[in-house]
Records
---
Amino acid sequence: MSKMKALVCRECGKEYPPKAIHVCEMCFGPLEVKYNYDEIKSTISRKKIEQGPNSMWRYIDLLPVESTSIIGPHAGLTPLVRAKNLGAHLGIDELYIKNDTVNHPTLSFKDRVVSVALTRARELGFETVACASTGNLANSVAAHAAAAGMKCYVFIPADLEAAKVLGNLIYKPNVVEVEGNYDDVNRLCSEIAGEHGWAFVNINIRPYYAEGSKTLAFETVEQLGWRTPDQAVIPMASGSLLTKIWKGLHEMHALGLVDSVRTKINGAQAEGCSPIATAFKAGRDFFKPVKPKTIAKSLAIGNPADGYYALKATAESKGAMDAVTDEEVVEGIKLLAQTEGIFAETAGGVTIGVLCKLVKQGLIKKSDVTVAYITGNGLKTQEAVVDAVGRPFRIQPSLVNFQKTFKMGKNSGGDS
Amino acid sequence: MIKVRIPTPLRPLTKGQGEVESTAANIVDMIGSLDATYPGLKSRLCDEKGDLRRFVNIYVNEEDIRFLNGKETSLKDGDEVSIVPAIAGG
């Protein structure tokens, strides 16, 4: 029997065969993969996982693919960095950075979801893949499609960072810049997906694609020595990542891989696009869409598909949400770089900024085992920090000139 | 005449048509008149109280009606309405 039973509507429970569909035709609710947990439970174990491949595919039993012919077999299993310096700065005893800035091959957490999506798309018989993206997703779809020999269309807003545009073109997909924001791109793609028989990874393949984010939860637990953290701080765009980390933790508990889930799930947004955090702080279980205006472009989704479920997961876990200004985003990027040597993109600045705020508010305590999810690489969003990092010292190639610049005498000021 | 684009999940109700026409004066009336022609369509889009379901987005000339006047948003000749499932992207 297959580990995937069906797709099931999260709202009304109607079941569908596991094909390329994402919306319940009765109530428009989102479809989600329903697994055969009894069967999975009978075969999965900590030991089996530990002996699996050095990638997120060691959790293949909990990912919605049928074959073992994987597109993107090296994605995931990124470092969980013990952030002693940043922890000391914030006054947290045990702080970790889940460092997806070094994910393979395109340096963001999107390599996880795309690996699942393209593997599933090929299983379902598709030859063309596509996506609506704020940048990182497009980069990952383009790279994986190139490696898999699939045709590719990526749709992005026209105002993206240069490195994210180039990071598509190099793989030679069809790159479509849409004059509008991400929500415009997304709406257009939903309509295109209805007309063309393509695998849109975050539209008709979304039920499978989104499951890839669970691996961030699985890896965190395994890397912590099979325990769940007390606190997780997660950036939110559509809210899907946060929702799936919460789901992943509970799957591990249901399958007996951890004894309990004690994690408070905390959501981070930028003030210029914070529909979910704003709703949470107002105590609402629904959000109002916004027109995004922030340097955190990878999180600039004004109409977040999983906003409702992110609110629910955070409330269930007794976590919190908050938002930071663009200035705090830049400060967050610099703080992480200068304490831990990790250069995050703007979304990482949002996460660190909100982490700082939650600590200040007393919501994250000194003894809480805390994991901050850093989902993308700073080299892709250099525009955000280029004016905030100073300039190099420029000197003539002379010893005297060097010593003068750093106000050093001969044989002074040295470290040894 | 107003053009209304129908998403895939509703096309079984519109005999497979991806685009239909309406002359309604606003979104509420449009849904009502479409339901008269294509029975069952309203109950897919609206809950028991008549409010739009949580995961239905409607756009008039590419603008989300939540930035306009919600389901009271008025329509005029030449407008284009899109009904789009909210669950996409991210």
Note: The CA atoms of residues 83 and 96 of chain A lie 5 Å apart.
---
Amino acid sequence: MNQVKVTYRPSDEVDFVIVGSGAAGGVMAKELSTNGFRVVVLEQGPYLTPNDFSHNEIEVFNQHQLTNNPRLQPNTFRRAPQEKAKVQQSVMYGRCVGGSSVHFTANYWRLHEIDFIERSRVGEIPGANLVDWPITYNDLEPYYTKVEWEVGVSGLAGASPFDPPRSKPYPMPPLPVKGSGVIFERAAWKLGYHPFPAPMAILSQPRAGRDSCVNCGFCLGFGCEVGAKSSSLASMIPLAEATGRCEIRPNSYVHRIETNKNGRVTGVVYFDAKRNEHMQKAKAVVVCANGGETPRLLLLSASSQFPNGLANSSGVVGKYLMPNSAALAYGVFDEPINDYKGFAVSRVMHDFYELDHTKLGFYGGGGLDARFDMTPAAFALFNLPPGTPKWGKGLKQTMRQNFTRTFEIFCHGTSLPVEANSFSLDPDVKDAWGLPALRMTFRDHPNDLKMMEWMADRAIEILDAAGAKTKWRTPVQEQQFAVHLLGTCRMGSDRKSSVINSDHRTHDVRNLFLCDGSSMVTSGRGQPTMTIQALAFRAADRISGLAKRGEISS
Amino acid sequence: MKPDQAARRNFLLQIGGAVGAAWVNAQWPAILDAAQHAHQAINSKAPGKLEVLTAEEARQVEAVCAQIIPSDDLPGAREAGVVYFIDRALKTFSSEDLPTYQKGLVNLNKLTAEKYPGTKSFADASTEQQQVILTELTAEPSEGKLGRRNGPEESTDFFQTIRTHTIFGFLADPSAGGNRDYAGWKVVGRDPAPVFSPPYGYYDKNYPGWAAAKPEAGPK
């Protein structure tokens, strides 16, 4: 690809501006530019390349090389709407070209049929506003397949009896099993469960000019130095740029969407790296900024014409935040597992995907995976058994004995949509650019906490069956930190209770589209990126069709 | 978890406790509550040279680190050069912790002098005496005299900060400036090789493949 990269001037009225270059924005950029449109992608963060990635935990974690920096962009948090929120980091997301897909674990589960029709299956749940999606699994299936083949997902079709139907196998075999996977698998089978090779957005074979995974062991939290992790940066962005029609413009912090007196979007205003303001003109705007920043941008774009925020006549913008629930159990074994080598997860189990709520007294479901995702320092700080001495011989002996012999079972599950759980603009706290900080209001639905208790107990049973020498689980607590930012501009056919329609077009503004975790109507079972990208492929199809038929600008 | 409370304030309270180890891991920034010194690489300075701590402070700090991760048949914090990691941390990403160290060391030496009259400083105490002092320092404030005498928060803050830094400086990838000659990784058994191929350990060594391992296909 020696092609000169295209650049546009802010005054050039391009066909589409895409805000955000992550899981959804990368797919959107590649699809729209491939379909012949002129596209500018504005990304808050820098344009890093694999040469910039390292195993330096200070740079990556302490200096926020890949993620939002709470010092520059503080968040506030509160449990309930009547409380005053306090400054406290409550969200984390990728802030670089490729977004969170640069540092993610890369678990790629499809949603199942049930995830789209939970409300009609289960009925009303008190304290939640569960609704059906306006699309079904069948509508999205071709796009899940597209993700697997175009973004690059390794896995084994048919391996899980709980999998929904698929039109094509995975393009690559699963990644090699790890010791954690073998132990988990044997124990799960012993208990009558159905473990299967984890579907992962990491290349098990070289593909599309990218290398396969070299098992360096610095995966979750880090950028991939060989491009084997199928981030938007590695997979989609290069294809978008190769069209010669797409400009990726990093260090561009969009803070307002401009509208004209007809209520149409005319472009977006952003700060460049030197904090100079520009307006990029566009015929249409697609916001893929993540489930926190997308509603924030709509709220920041309030005007006399749109007093509650842009595209917010429903009042639903920012509401129904679903971060997924989580619980953890650890086991220590007799022999070295050495699970620090390689990617995080090699075996998953979906036997609890659809639990019988009439018997258990709670609704929901989830998946379990066997993993090791700790650096050695993180391990010594957080993953030693309860009661380990804080210092001295006992501490050293335990870390020495356990590091190579421990793995964890991670339980992931549903979050119910609760109206009060939301993102909004903080009335007092500002970021380093003087813009209102993102405020998170969140309290887990009691149902979700019950479910995670139940799941963590099952994880302990599996560790028991596996013969773990030592095992423990972390207490299930109310969450106040989110990385899965889902549901905050929900899709729906009723404009009074949703923000976008099934084409991802906002009900209120004809040439404004939203696509990312915010579009999701239910939370799924804990691994949303696959669905976010399938939605982006589908949305790009719909949006391209509308544009070609002249149904956006007219 | 009461003894941890003060130092966890900057960390766990920010992120809400047990949200999941993966998320906690990804939450490193709050662990040391880093100051923003954009890309001021901690490893840019020659090792073995102090820039923030005085030689005397460094001697005390190293004595504490060496009690947290002692040397035995395998290296400890001393051999891993943790004190230099801490010195550079205090110059760069953790500069706001310097007063915590300075006050903490003053308290530590005061406690040493009270407990063992004639002993000039913590570093000059015998290893057994140091362990007695640290046991007292890390005990719950209400149970020990220290709480009333020296201020429980300051003392626990100091211990938790230096503990976190010590573990970090012992086990982080050497590109982050600690873990000299992979001393820490030798202890925990992490192979410093940059890439690996399976099998990785005891349990995956003779794995027959998923299809063959499935119960209905196997002899079980």
Note: Confidence is low (pLDDT under 50) at residues 1-46, 143-152 of chain B.
